[in-house]
Amino acid sequence: MTLKEFINNTEPLKKLVQKYDQRCHVFNNKNRGHTEQVQMLLIKILKTYFDIQEGKVAETLKPNPLMRKIPKDINPDTPVSSLSSRRIVLLGKSGVEKSAAGNTILGQRKFRSVMSTSSVTCECSDAHATVSGRSVSVVDTPPFFDTHMKHEKLMMEIMRSVYISRPGPHAFIIMFPVNMRFTEHEQQIPQMIEMLFGEEVLKYSIILFTHGDLLEGVSVEELVEKNCRLRDLVQQCGGRFHVFNNRDVNNRDQVNDLLKKIDTMIEQNGGGHYSNQMFEDARRFRQEEEEQRERGRGEKTTRGD
User: In a 3-state reduction of DSSP, which class is residue 218?
Assistant: First the structure.
């Protein structure tokens, strides 16, 4: 039986769950390797937190610098392709120069960036500037596989980027250095991003290679073509990729070219952006999958298999 069926079978339990606005979750502590049940709990906690924040009366709600309001002059029904603003989320491991790339995009030193293999960013931060006549906002996120943060806290913080860039980011920029050895570890990153944000997220994603100064005469296209793992990563994002040289901060062509690729991606997606609704749909889909798996395990136990 599903969790919902289990609750509805017991009237006192049903009333208890109703008292908490239907917020409930189920754990199988015998299967500690099953991380999705933890991810689902974190998503529910995150959703509840932001619902509460948005539901408070304005006079009593304390300002939250991470919850940027939608500009009043933007009509939510206006096609996003006609707007001059662009909202970007940066994703990647430690050492991929995420913060430096954010500074390069904005043309200003907005994010703290140092040469280090360890993480500088431990929570999401956002900054914005006018770039080539348009308003551009960038959200920097903690790095995947950060050993200084608990996995659950890390995943929750990365997921929070969607709410910070609300009503939703136009582009997720998944970053890798051109000189990185691409192992199965790196290949897991798109799957992790899909797990957090749903399958739709890769339609709004672009691979960005950093350390472009290390290409040494080889084009990034040649690099992708010669490496099957790199090629697979790029294909998962619709063949979209770009390269940055963060040491050439005066090279605005590389930024304008990235923005043009984002514009093209938006047009290919019908003029829309990744939305909070897509995030909720992904959460609901994962919950349904979890309930189906629980039902299957229950049936298997009943048969005595």
Answer: coil
* Cα–Cα distance measured from residue 279 to residue 298, given in angstroms and rounded to the nearest whole number: 29
Distance of CA 146 to the CA centre of its chain: 15
Amino acid at the residue 85: S
**Using CA atoms, how far apart are residues 136 and 130, in angstroms rounded to an integer?**
6
For residue 292, count other CB atoms closer than 10 A to its CB. 11
Closest residue by Cα to residue 87 from 132, 136, 155, 23: 136
Instruction: Write 116-122 long-range contacts (CB < 8 A, 24+).
Output: 118/94, 118/148, 119/94, 119/143, 119/146, 119/148, 119/149, 122/146, 122/148, 122/149, 122/157
Are 223 and 230 within 8 A, CB to CB? yes
| Partners of residue 208 on adjacent β-strands | 175, 242
Which domains are present in the chain?
A: 3-62+279-303 (no CATH), 80-274 (3.40.50.300)
Per-residue pLDDT of the chain (305 residues; tens, 9 = 90+): 788 888 888 888 988 988 888 888 888 888 766 567 777 787 777 665 545 444 443 333 334 333 333 333 333 333 444 457 899 999 998 888 899 999 999 999 998 866 554 555 678 999 999 998 899 999 999 988 877 778 888 888 888 898 888 888 999 999 998 887 777 777 788 888 888 888 789 999 999 999 888 887 788 898 888 888 888 889 989 999 999 988 887 889 999 999 999 999 999 988 888 886 777 766 676 677 667 777 776 666 666 55
Contact residues for 285 (Cβ-Cβ < 8 A; gap 6+)? 198
Question: Is there a contact between 120 and 113 (Cβ–Cβ < 8 Å)?
Answer: yes
| Contact yes or no for 276/67 (Cβ under 8 A) | no
- What are the structure tokens assigned to 295, written together? 């039902």
